[in-house]
Amino acid sequence: MSTPAFPVHPVLLVDDDKDLLRNYVYTLRADGITNVITCEDGAGVDALMKEHEFDAVLLDLNMPRLSGRDVLPRIVQRHPDLPVIVVTGVDEVDTAVKCMRAGAFDYMVKPVKEEHLLTGLRRALDVRDVRRENALLTQHLLSTELTQPDAFSDIVTSDAGMRSLFQYIEAIAGTPQPILVTGETGVGKELIARAIHQSSGRTGEFIPVNIAGLDDNVFSDTLFGHVKGAFTGAMDVRKGLIERAEGGTLFLDEIGDLNSMSQVKLLRLVQEREYFALGSDSAKRTNARIVVATNRDLQTLQRSGDFREDLYFRLRSHHVNAPPLRERRGDLPRLLDHFLARSATEMKKKKPTPPPELVTLLSTYSFPGNIRELEAMCYDAVSTHKSGVLSMSTFRDAISREQGSVPELPALPVPSPDFLSPDQPLPSIRQAERLLIEEALRRTDGNQTMASQLLGITRQTLNRHLKNMRAQEEDQP
């Protein structure tokens, strides 16, 4: 498998010294910057700019036909977000100041040390990424349409908040920076990560790895591979998953469980884009996109010393938080239909018809296991379904096992009634009863069966109370 060029768009090297250009190319390629275009004449820059999109420019100041002093303002005017590093043999403060005022990103004096050249160019590439990300983010957030809706086809939703999340993902998907995906267990973090990969335009594979419980040796061997003889039993070379993810996305799930030694290695991978196979002294470079996920609070882990601060801030260059199902109750009918259909297909059964009360029942439940829990309920219900309307008993039993009764009131913020304020008189029992019944009917969309269950009474008792309430209204003048 050929290694994709890095960066995505080439770096332009402009200098009339052919030997120096050749040395630049060797130095950059040795550091993993392989996508390079050279130009020996300042007059040829305009044509190259029309033909290619560049990520950075290394520009010699003194050239015979068209000098870098003339080329620099042209580039800055036409491509203001493109970082230009001026390289010259003139070590004069006045010249450096003029170049920086003209829009140069950096100024280097020949002969340039390799370390200085690489550090400056890497910094320029990082700035170019940030500028591109900001432009994309602005463009997508101002738009109401998704440019790649197919990338999100596996995520069943009609929720407005999820749509905003998709727009944000489209804005950041094309950048090489790491992405942190957070959310409770079962919210679909891997589906989010796959959507990021599919939106990115990357041609490599999506490689998921669950790193929970891996010790440092297993983590290193799994991700980075090993050379022959690296340890007892290492009879052959083994390529790591990071190599399989070249040109694609490496998804690390349960990142909050990563041990401290492995965190150091991951930091190097994220920060320097390089790694060492076990038993090897030669660093390898990668351009795989890193996406990580966790259901733990990394800020809390970082404050307690269980997660490196520098790694935390590196990983959350972009942050996607997947909302829990209780915040997407409007998606319940769509998700229910989706999982019933899928489970029926897998079990070679006819898709059952759910009773209308089922969505109401589910809407009163907080779903601590989120979408994965709803999926398990549907599979369980379909597995025992015979014919006709789907029974609600399996759903009731599942909820009962989790919370002890069916159903509890949902954990929603409800303002305290005025009559509970210390400066207000208490209502009568009859008035409090009416308030409770009205609230239960509101929460269940008028479904009396579900309202009676919320109140802990029978349907007949609720009917009797409702008749009494109507009679009282009729008696009032």
Word description of this protein:
It is built from 19 helices and 14 strands. The protein is α/β, with parallel strands linked by helices and 477 residues long. It folds into 4 domains: 11-136, Response regulator (Rossmann fold, 3-Layer(aba) Sandwich); 144-323, Rossmann fold; 326-403, Helicase, Ruva Protein, domain 3 (Orthogonal Bundle); 420-475, Homeodomain-like (Arc Repressor Mutant, subunit A, Orthogonal Bundle). It has a 5-stranded parallel sheet, with helices on both faces. Strands 7-10-13-6-14 form a 5-stranded parallel sheet. Strands 8-9 form a two-stranded antiparallel ribbon. The longest helix is centred in the first third of the chain and has 29 residues, at 114-142.
